[in-house]
Amino acid sequence: MSIARCPACICGGLPNLQDRDDSTHPMPIFRILRLNRQHMARLLLLVILTTASSVVLLVVPWMAGHLLGTMVTGQEGALKGAVGVLAACLVAIAMLSFLTADRMVRMSAALLAELRERIFDHVQRLPMAFHDSRGKGDMLAVMTIEIAKLSEFVAVTLVAVPARLLTAIGAMIVMFTIDARLALLIPTIVPLFYLATKIVGRRLQGLAVQIQQADARAIALSDEALQIVPATKAFGQEAAQYDRYRQTVRKLEGLMVRQGRIYAALDPLISLIAAFAALAVLWFAGHDVSDGRMTASELFSFMFYAALLTRPVGSLAHLYGQIQTARGALARLSAVLAEPTEDVGAAQASRRPRAHGAIEFRNVHFAYAGRDPVLTGVDLRVGAAERIAILGANGAGKTAMINLLMRYYDPQVGAIFVDGEDSRTMGLSALRDRIGLVPQSALLFNATIRENIAFGAVGASQQMIDDAARLAQALDFVASLPYGMDTVIGDCGLRLSGGQRQRIALARALIKDPAIIIFDEATSMFDDEGEEAFIDACNDALHGRTVILVTHRPATLALANRIVTLEDGRIRELRADERRLQKVSA
Ligand SMILES: Nc1ncnc2c1ncn2[C@@H]1O[C@H](COP(=O)(O)OP(=O)(O)O)[C@@H](O)[C@H]1O
Ligand SMILES: [Mg+2]
């Protein structure tokens, strides 16, 4: 999918984002956020609210000037009316700002929730090759802080821009009507504002990108560190890990201080320019008032409008930095959302005749992106209900074969057939539905055992869960846990032993009643006794299914009725004498 160039997006078509892999031009913000009519209506309401505030705000200096003017000239009657109008304006502003803030929070919360749901759904449907290429922390950063920045930018910053412009333009128009000659002073300071924003903006641009990167790295590091706590302890790496993390967050601190200083300088700078302009006005206006060409009211109003003008001008200058930040977030988000997801096809298992589980690898060649070939012409036929063991050295490509069978990746050459059908044409869900995979690491999540087993099949009943647990020989140890099936097992099943984890992984695979079952070194965690018991039990559970065993364990080999090896990227049948040797050692 290519990303359309977008005149509508906030970056105004500027292509240069100094960023790693996100050099693609971002999608328009409105497309990213999927702003529908309802959203637009809400955004419009916000624009109306902020604009209404700004209109009322424009009345205030006029009235305040008038009030002061009448005080100076001592017209008691006019005073009352002016105070009344002014009070009403202040109440209106207070109410409007409550409404605006309330609506803004709702809007940005809603946008954030929608964006979160959307990106979560998208990311987990992206192919394995994508996940290989992107760091997890990087993705976490996009899925959390980046989209938060973006939704806030739209719902809080962007919607207020029309009102700010209105305030600025309105103030200037009124100033012109009060005294065109004095008002002409204002355009003369515009270049100064422009210059200030320009200088500041250039510095902010690079900082925004660097801050995002450091933020993402900090998230990545904490995520990683939490995952490898036991290794950190075992190898005494606490200090080194801390150092790594510290460097990143301190760098982030430095960047934020630099950014903060620029913003901190911006406001006083703009105030200063405005104050000098006001002084200039006073200088010139003094004569006008004393000459009677200008009333005191007009002068006061004029000054108040000048003060009012500095606010939107200041925030418009801030906008520049905010746009830089949003632009970075947008680019990253676009890059992720532009990635095509896997098409899993319709879930149609019920309409299919029961799968038999025959598998054929036909001249399969495969290399991971940017790596040397792993498989170079794999040919392998596995009959339905056959049990085959695949041996091979570490890194020979056994898991790669399984990954191809599951279609986590596709081969560059050749094809894989399941029940006679090319696996690329049968639909991912139809393919994956008939395979029960017990992977090397069990991939459990922090929930109950029941929930972890039920993960194997959508809508699994209690009976199915219990049956699967029994078949996987998990009932005994489950019974010994404090809450049985309802015991929560910790992150990745942290609170279970390796063998227990694998039994749950097997129960999870069995619950979908797959025609094909694969153990990818999944018995490696058992002790010998445990393995034998496991194998005994498996004989029942595996009955009638095609079984692929990726293993080195002799006991598991006893399960197989055929043994092949994967060497130099190809499959070789074990000769009879070699086979006898393997079986004897079993
Ligand atoms: N996601 C990946 N990206 C790139 N290379 C990989 C990936 N996974 C594994 N490899 C490499 O592919 C080769 C085969 O790995 P694998 O199939 O896991 O071996 P094994 O036979 O031990 O299961 C190894 O050299 C490994 O380094
Ligand atoms: Mg492997």
TrEMBL record:
<feature type="domain" description="ABC transmembrane type-1">
    <location>
        <begin position="44"/>
        <end position="325"/>
    </location>
</feature>
<dbReference type="GO" id="GO:0005886">
    <property type="term" value="C:plasma membrane"/>
</dbReference>
<dbReference type="GO" id="GO:0015421">
    <property type="term" value="F:ABC-type oligopeptide transporter activity"/>
</dbReference>
<dbReference type="InterPro" id="IPR003593">
    <property type="entry name" value="AAA+_ATPase"/>
</dbReference>
<dbReference type="Pfam" id="PF00664">
    <property type="entry name" value="ABC_membrane"/>
</dbReference>
<dbReference type="GO" id="GO:0016887">
    <property type="term" value="F:ATP hydrolysis activity"/>
</dbReference>
<keyword id="KW-0067">ATP-binding</keyword>
<keyword id="KW-0547">Nucleotide-binding</keyword>
<dbReference type="InterPro" id="IPR036640">
    <property type="entry name" value="ABC1_TM_sf"/>
</dbReference>
<dbReference type="InterPro" id="IPR011527">
    <property type="entry name" value="ABC1_TM_dom"/>
</dbReference>
<feature type="transmembrane region" description="Helical">
    <location>
        <begin position="77"/>
        <end position="99"/>
    </location>
</feature>
<feature type="domain" description="ABC transporter">
    <location>
        <begin position="359"/>
        <end position="586"/>
    </location>
</feature>
<dbReference type="Pfam" id="PF00005">
    <property type="entry name" value="ABC_tran"/>
</dbReference>
<dbReference type="GO" id="GO:0005524">
    <property type="term" value="F:ATP binding"/>
</dbReference>
<feature type="transmembrane region" description="Helical">
    <location>
        <begin position="299"/>
        <end position="320"/>
    </location>
</feature>
<keyword id="KW-0472">Membrane</keyword>
<dbReference type="InterPro" id="IPR017871">
    <property type="entry name" value="ABC_transporter-like_CS"/>
</dbReference>
<dbReference type="InterPro" id="IPR039421">
    <property type="entry name" value="Type_1_exporter"/>
</dbReference>
<dbReference type="InterPro" id="IPR027417">
    <property type="entry name" value="P-loop_NTPase"/>
</dbReference>
<keyword id="KW-0813">Transport</keyword>
<keyword id="KW-1003">Cell membrane</keyword>
<feature type="transmembrane region" description="Helical">
    <location>
        <begin position="153"/>
        <end position="176"/>
    </location>
</feature>
<feature type="transmembrane region" description="Helical">
    <location>
        <begin position="182"/>
        <end position="201"/>
    </location>
</feature>
<protein>
    <submittedName>
        <fullName>ABC transporter ATP-binding protein</fullName>
    </submittedName>
</protein>
<feature type="transmembrane region" description="Helical">
    <location>
        <begin position="262"/>
        <end position="284"/>
    </location>
</feature>
<dbReference type="InterPro" id="IPR003439">
    <property type="entry name" value="ABC_transporter-like_ATP-bd"/>
</dbReference>
<keyword id="KW-1133">Transmembrane helix</keyword>
<feature type="transmembrane region" description="Helical">
    <location>
        <begin position="43"/>
        <end position="65"/>
    </location>
</feature>
<keyword id="KW-0812">Transmembrane</keyword>
